Amino acid sequence: MVRIVGLAFAILLAGDVKEGMAEPADGSFQVQRVSGICPQNRTTRKAPGRYLKKKNPVPPTAENIAEGRRLFNQDAKPTACKLCHGARGNGNGSLARRLEPPPRNFTCADAMEGLPDGQLFWIIQNGSRGTAMPAHKSTLKPEEIWQLILFIRKFLKA
Ligand code: HEC
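That is the input. Now the predicted structure with heme C docked in place:
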């Protein structure tokens, strides 16, 4: 039993869910994006004012962005961000399928442009209560969160 669950989990982690097949009424197949929705309905709590005023103190050097990428794709605990937010940052990670609300789509200008760095910092540090977005207070140093933010911001321009 444990082995079966482990296997199912491994399959779940294996791939980035990019698109699913939907069968429209006329019987022809059509490729449909499972998530990656934009504009995205956003009901996330607003960070306290002292956070919203924070500026990213970590310079956007190639090294810092690379650190952000490493954390996003594999090293962040408890779960690599990629597994929910997707390798392309569009909210289509392999764990995203049934999440409601869905993971933020970082490629969506409508969802991301108005959000200050301090808002992203606060949610990454404390999580978004009542959603799958976990807190990283005990697993990521502030500097690492700022590096992640430098990396996440790149998805908009990609
Ligand atoms: C288990 C799935 C999951 C993982 C892992 C995860 N997230 Fe999220 N994330 C979510 C969901 C779901 C939301 C949407 C929360 C909401 O609507 O309030 C979200 C929202 C966000 C937001 C948007 C905050 C806002 O104010 O709109 C940011 C930024 C973010 N996540 C960053 C990260 C980073 C960085 C990591 C890795 C360190 C990460 N997430 C890991 C599921 C996840």
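The domain at 2-157 is CATH 1.10.760.10 (Cytochrome Bc1 Complex; Chain D, domain 2).
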